[in-house]
Amino acid sequence: MASPTVENYLKALYALANEDDEVNISDLSIHLKVSKPTVNSMVKTLNQQDWVNYERYKPIVLTRKGRKAAALILRKHRLTEMYLVEKMGFGWEEVHEIAEQIEHVKAPALFDRMDKLMDFPKVDPHGSPIPDKDGNIIDQNYKKLSECKVGDQVVLLALTHSSKDFLEFLDSREISLKLELEIKAIEPFDSSMLISYYNHPSETLSQKVCDRLLVQKS
Amino acid sequence: MASPTVENYLKALYALANEDDEVNISDLSIHLKVSKPTVNSMVKTLNQQDWVNYERYKPIVLTRKGRKAAALILRKHRLTEMYLVEKMGFGWEEVHEIAEQIEHVKAPALFDRMDKLMDFPKVDPHGSPIPDKDGNIIDQNYKKLSECKVGDQVVLLALTHSSKDFLEFLDSREISLKLELEIKAIEPFDSSMLISYYNHPSETLSQKVCDRLLVQKS
DNA sequence: ATATAGTGTTAGATTAGTCTAACAAAATTC
DNA sequence: GAATTTTGTTAGACTAATCTAACACTATAT
Questions:
Q1: Which residue of B has its CA nearest to A114?
Q2: What domains, with CATH codes, occur in chain A?
Q3: Taking the complete model, does pTM exceed 0.90, yes or no?
Q4: Which end of chain B has less neighbouring CB within 10 Å, N or C?
């Protein structure tokens, strides 16, 4: 089986492939906070072990095997996050660091049990989909709030990024998943939005924030 | 902080010191399933980092720092085992392997939360005491069943060993903690015991089994 | 009290994962 | 298209944790 280090490379490759479409050595180096030569030599190893396809100076691409492995680690991560929130009472901003560690635990029964105790949740506490046991993931075709128009009434269903800072910002405005909100106005100068929701008749959100909120028309 | 490997050495030293009183290189080598030279070099490192006191050809002794660290790992292990049984419905024979991994997770909040959700349990699913947050452990002065006399009425409160095989054996006889039992007879030839308990008017337990059952007069 | 068995040590090698320094290739910009 | 910046590679070294082979010390037993 893959070491935690290898698992982290696979996870990073999987995540980066969904942002940019071509993943290179530098991207991984920044994301994993290791030097480029380190990534270079590790990627050669991953290639030999059929986790990725790689040729010198070319982008790095996960193999089918690598993609499945990455999705199953993500499954463990997201099940854990959801369990920590749902069953242990942690806040959505506290669970990432803990799940980063527990995702490497080799004990299928543990994650199956979490899954069952939560009645097979489909998303994690940040609205991201939980891959199934085969590593398949449902594509949520949500829209960014920043792409909506004045007058739109939408429900917040997921976040594109879940940094602690961002989550604490949302907490401070009482913004959580399932929140229904309406776009009152869009400031042409900086694309910030004036929105209204339960107990908050008028809040301003910067474009950066609106870019990270995924919504659906309600 | 200590690596998982170092943590496993400390845990082994702590456990072995409670069985034999002098712990040597060979003991550790067998217990940790690594070669003696490996232990030898690791113990030198542990000595330099003040986890143990060690001089060539002498027994290995945990320092105060090492003993506290070991007890805190044991605390995480036992809290996890209890949580898995109490809150997640695992059997007492399933939890050791999972706890072996989770005990290395660096997330005090996780273990504090388990502790709180279980209302601060004092023992794990096998009756072993859970060290407190300072690494102090209460000494249970239980007696081995094998040391009891015919006619004694006792409660089973803990086990000295918790291998999967042994736990499955106990399950097969419907023997669990808190069970009240009476010693009907002791076979002089092999010291096996004839005992009686709820729904089992007469079961025979070998001396090996009776040695591993810790009881108190009821 | 010496032979033997058990225990401990040294030396040297290996693997995984990391680094820096220096250079090479590719991409971008002027 | 030449210069510059970014990206990638090679070479060489380091640390943690492990191994085997060979030898040394200690304890046990006749």
A1: B88
A2: 4-62 (1.10.10.10), 143-217 (2.30.30.90)
A3: yes
A4: N
